[in-house]
Amino acid sequence: MTNAFTYAFLLALGGSLLLRLWLARRHTRHILRHRQQLPAGFADSIPLEAHQRAADYTVAKTRLGMLNAVADTLLILALTLGGGLQGLWQLSANLAGSDLLRGLILIGAVSLVSGAVSLPFSLARTFGVEARFGFNSTTPKLFFLDLIKSTTLGIMIGAPLLLLVLWLMSIMGSLWWLWVWLLWSGFSVLLVAVYPTLIAPLFNKFQPLQDATLSQRIDALLQRCGFKSQGIFVMDGSTRSSHGNAYFTGFGASKRIVFFDTLLKRLEHDEIEAVLAHELGHFHKRHVIKRIGLTFALSLGFLFILGRLIDASWFYQGLGLTSQSNALALVLFFMVIPAFTFPLTPLSSLLSRRHEYEADDFAAAQVSAEALASALVKLYRDNASTLTPDPLHSAFYDSHPPATLRIAHLKGEHA
Ligand SMILES: [Zn+2]
């Protein structure tokens, strides 16, 4: 029962996959071409051996990502035109009497299938690539414990929320999408607010920073920047991986800055202070709030579109369905929409990179550009992040500017 929409969908899905694979291939080729030589300005701080290891690591990750993209596309095809969703929908009729419960079972089944497809890739990433390059410290036991925990959490939070959404869809008439948006937005705010204190501690241990001299320096910086929070926390990132990082999370009273223990171990005090100032820059410039606002606006737009599509039989038929229901519409829409929006990825990456530059500028003004630059070089080296990404790949995906540009920016050069 193909129609014009079937062809538009196939074109978007195929086009997105080809674009993904083409960018990945450019990326690996570019990296391998620059494997023998560090970019200018890095030769003193990073040994050639480390540069080559970063190249091999990035190439291995990118190749696994290519396979993953192919598998994801095949899964979407199997579920839509392949009849998978239609089959699951019919199966759910035998398990549930009410439409609400049937919808919940359908969405649960789809999540289970897509989880099963992504699991081998997640295993290959952790115990293949990450282990091969010496980053992995997750044991198989911890891996599966995490999986069980996150699945349980997903069901506990997701099932009631979905039931509410399906219920609103069934009783709110033609403006249901507005109500669902309000529910979704309220829920997202709640999640961001409780994530640092209630959810993250289920997976990691967070401890206040112990080092007294460092704490003093940090407190002075926090006061200077007018940042009131429950302080700085150190996370036991080393239990899963030797990658180091720092991040800013939550808002209001729950906001906090988190350092991975792996990062603290490797940086000098002035470098830690500079990294912290960068994170404070994100806070000062209200990047989290801006991101949330943007997400709200986009989700309102998408739900409005879904509100138009939900009664259109061509939408279901074009994607291989003979039945129509609210739950099917939700699943179809959110499964298919990324194929159409994938080409817009560079816009979001661009915004994110702009925020990174702003946070860097803030850190340079508050602490020191040199300290941040030397911290970044260490981070790139120890995380085996490539210094020579394909420029187009980087412009398309990267949330952070490439090292060469970022450090040039800190040094006031315009590369
Ligand atoms: Zn940042």
From TrEMBL:
<comment type="similarity">
    <text>Belongs to the peptidase M48 family.</text>
</comment>
<dbReference type="InterPro" id="IPR027057">
    <property type="entry name" value="CAXX_Prtase_1"/>
</dbReference>
<feature type="binding site">
    <location>
        <position position="356"/>
    </location>
    <ligand>
        <name>Zn(2+)</name>
    </ligand>
</feature>
<protein>
    <submittedName>
        <fullName>STE24 endopeptidase</fullName>
    </submittedName>
</protein>
<keyword id="KW-0378">Hydrolase</keyword>
<feature type="transmembrane region" description="Helical">
    <location>
        <begin position="69"/>
        <end position="89"/>
    </location>
</feature>
<feature type="transmembrane region" description="Helical">
    <location>
        <begin position="142"/>
        <end position="169"/>
    </location>
</feature>
<keyword id="KW-0812">Transmembrane</keyword>
<feature type="transmembrane region" description="Helical">
    <location>
        <begin position="175"/>
        <end position="195"/>
    </location>
</feature>
<feature type="domain" description="Peptidase M48">
    <location>
        <begin position="208"/>
        <end position="412"/>
    </location>
</feature>
<dbReference type="Pfam" id="PF16491">
    <property type="entry name" value="Peptidase_M48_N"/>
</dbReference>
<dbReference type="GO" id="GO:0071586">
    <property type="term" value="P:CAAX-box protein processing"/>
</dbReference>
<feature type="active site">
    <location>
        <position position="279"/>
    </location>
</feature>
<keyword id="KW-0862">Zinc</keyword>
<feature type="active site" description="Proton donor">
    <location>
        <position position="360"/>
    </location>
</feature>
<dbReference type="InterPro" id="IPR001915">
    <property type="entry name" value="Peptidase_M48"/>
</dbReference>
<feature type="binding site">
    <location>
        <position position="278"/>
    </location>
    <ligand>
        <name>Zn(2+)</name>
    </ligand>
</feature>
<feature type="transmembrane region" description="Helical">
    <location>
        <begin position="292"/>
        <end position="315"/>
    </location>
</feature>
<feature type="domain" description="CAAX prenyl protease 1 N-terminal">
    <location>
        <begin position="28"/>
        <end position="205"/>
    </location>
</feature>
<keyword id="KW-0256">Endoplasmic reticulum</keyword>
<dbReference type="GO" id="GO:0046872">
    <property type="term" value="F:metal ion binding"/>
</dbReference>
<keyword id="KW-0645">Protease</keyword>
<dbReference type="InterPro" id="IPR032456">
    <property type="entry name" value="Peptidase_M48_N"/>
</dbReference>
<keyword id="KW-0479">Metal-binding</keyword>
<feature type="binding site">
    <location>
        <position position="282"/>
    </location>
    <ligand>
        <name>Zn(2+)</name>
    </ligand>
</feature>
<dbReference type="GO" id="GO:0004222">
    <property type="term" value="F:metalloendopeptidase activity"/>
</dbReference>
<dbReference type="Pfam" id="PF01435">
    <property type="entry name" value="Peptidase_M48"/>
</dbReference>
<feature type="transmembrane region" description="Helical">
    <location>
        <begin position="101"/>
        <end position="121"/>
    </location>
</feature>
<keyword id="KW-0472">Membrane</keyword>
<keyword id="KW-0482">Metalloprotease</keyword>
<feature type="transmembrane region" description="Helical">
    <location>
        <begin position="327"/>
        <end position="345"/>
    </location>
</feature>
<keyword id="KW-1133">Transmembrane helix</keyword>
<feature type="transmembrane region" description="Helical">
    <location>
        <begin position="6"/>
        <end position="23"/>
    </location>
</feature>
